[in-house]
Amino acid sequence: MLHEDVTEKTRRENELKRSDDILHRVGTLVLVSNPKGEIVYCAPSIKKALGYMPEEVLGNGWWNMTFYNKNDQEKAKEQVHKFNGNRQIAGKGIYERQVRGKNGRDPWILWQQTRGSDGLVIGVGHDITERKRIEDAFRDEKEFSETILSTIPDGIDIVDEEGKILYMNAPFLSAFGKKAIGKKCYDVYRDDKTQCEICPLKKPIEVGKTETIVTSGIACEKTFMISHTGMKLPSGKKAILEIFRDITRMRKTEQQLVSRNRELNQFFYRVSHDLKGPSASILGILNIGKETIEDRESLEYFDLIGTSVNKLNVILDGLSQITLIQQGNPKKEPVNIESLLDDTISACKYIKGFDEVDIKIVNHLERPVITDRKLLDTILTNLIDNAVKYRKAGVKNSFIKITTRSEERRVGKECRSRWSTYH
User: Fold this and answer.
1) What is the torsional sign of CA 12, 14, 17, 19?
2) What percent of the chain has pLDDT over 90?
3) CA-based Rg of the chain, rounded to a whole angstrom?
4) pTM of the full structure
């Protein structure tokens, strides 16, 4: 009988040793407390996890060493007592807390409590520090993203492939309310409740690709510039991130500017056209005066007046050309470059200092150029005018060299020409 008792005791000791070895290897914390809350057993894995020897935490050692303050310690002991004493509580008590370690680590432990025999409470703990770190990082990133989205004044949403709204940022939630979530985007935004003709959902979504459209008739006849970017949801399904920018006021301002520019162009055109008549009359009268008056001083005055009127005519022609350019309606026709250059240079003779500059023309073009004669004349006139006015003062033998040549770069049946002006 004594031999059997010794054998049984040895077997139990071996089993306990084997259990301790297993618990040590898996790294799981195991604590057993009696009805008084005293720790009567601690698995050897505590040394690796927290730096304590198992015997250090027996009795009240666990409560005294692993809590940050007395208040938390008492709350935890009370929780164990309630769990052990109240059988109406579910079979397992699960909670998590940060434990103060002896080795400098203060890991987060997920505890699962279960009732044993004789009023014992068994606590099994798993280190969840890494999981908590990831959760905290994810929460911080989420809060940061939500802060950014909430501070962006533009409306932002996410819609699925069917056009249902999955997400709205704060400005859109404020404008349309939470009830908009789950509805079709055009039912919420569009005044006519119809899908946009250029809606990106009418074609397959390309993840990472961004397209921008401008559409009107949104939220009480407003105009929005909307950027659509394809994305993939955590579920694997595709969706579109939309950023709405209200450009209603900008569009109205643009329309007002276009209207005023149009009025200004019309004014320039009318002024230049209306003044051309009186200018031509002045020149005609001057020519008559030159034929009938022989006084040299008077003729010099006539020449000065004629020069001023010619300057005025160039300004008026420039105003007309500005209007034509802004209207974007050039008149293309075959232009003989040699003839055009002769006319342009003749018209520039009134420029102060023109007679001090030698004009050299090297024309390699053998055929007319298809262009707007008036616009080209204006360009050449401005180039010559600037070359004469802004040449280096005091330099003798000043000259302007105009070279023309053709480069056979065919675009359809047209031939481009390149102009080079040197001074």
Assistant:
1) negative
2) 28
3) 46
4) 0.47
Do residues 238 and 159 lie in contact, with contact meaning Cβ atoms separated by under 8 Å? no
Q: How many CA atoms lie within 13 A of 8 on its CB side?
A: 5
Pairing mode of beta strands 121-127, 222-232:
unpaired
Q: 10 Å Cβ neighbour count for 55?
A: 9
CA 419, CA 368: separation in Å to the nearest integer?
14
| Tokens standing for residue 252 | 């109205």
Tens digit of each residue's pLDDT (9 = 90 or more) over 70-95 = 888 888 777 777 776 655 444 457 88
- Alpha-carbon distance of 381 to 341, in angstroms, equals 9
User: What gap in Å lies between CA 273 and CA 86, rounded to an integer?
Assistant: 104
Residues contacting residue 382 through CB under 8 Å, at least 6 positions apart = none
The span from the CA of 310 to the CA of 385, in Å, is 14
Q: Centre a 10 Å sphere on the Cβ of residue 88 and count the other Cβ atoms it contains.
A: 4
- The per-type count for the chain, helices as H runs and strands as E runs, is 11, 15
Average of pLDDT values for 232-259?
91
Antiparallel, parallel or unpaired: β 210-218 and 333-335 = unpaired
β-strand partners of 359: 400
Could you say which DSSP state residue 59 is in? B
Select from 85, 101, 92 the least CA-distant residue to 122: 92
Alpha helices in 328-414 (DSSP H): 337-347, 373-389
- Contact at 8 Å (CB) between 167 and 183? no
Look up residue 400 and give its two tokens: 């302007």
CB contact set of 247 (below 8 Å; sequence gap of 6+):
214, 223, 224, 225
Per the model's pLDDT, the better-predicted residue between 343 and 23 turns out to be 343
Residue type, 57: V
Q: What share of the chain is helix, strand, coil (3-state, %, to 5)?
A: 50, 25, 25
> Distance between CA 150 and CA 358 in Å, rounded?
69
Calculate mean pLDDT across residues 33-55: 89
CB 66 within 8 A of CB 56: no
Inter-helix orientation angle 373-389/337-347, to 10°? 50
Helix H or strand E encompassing 319:
helix 296-327
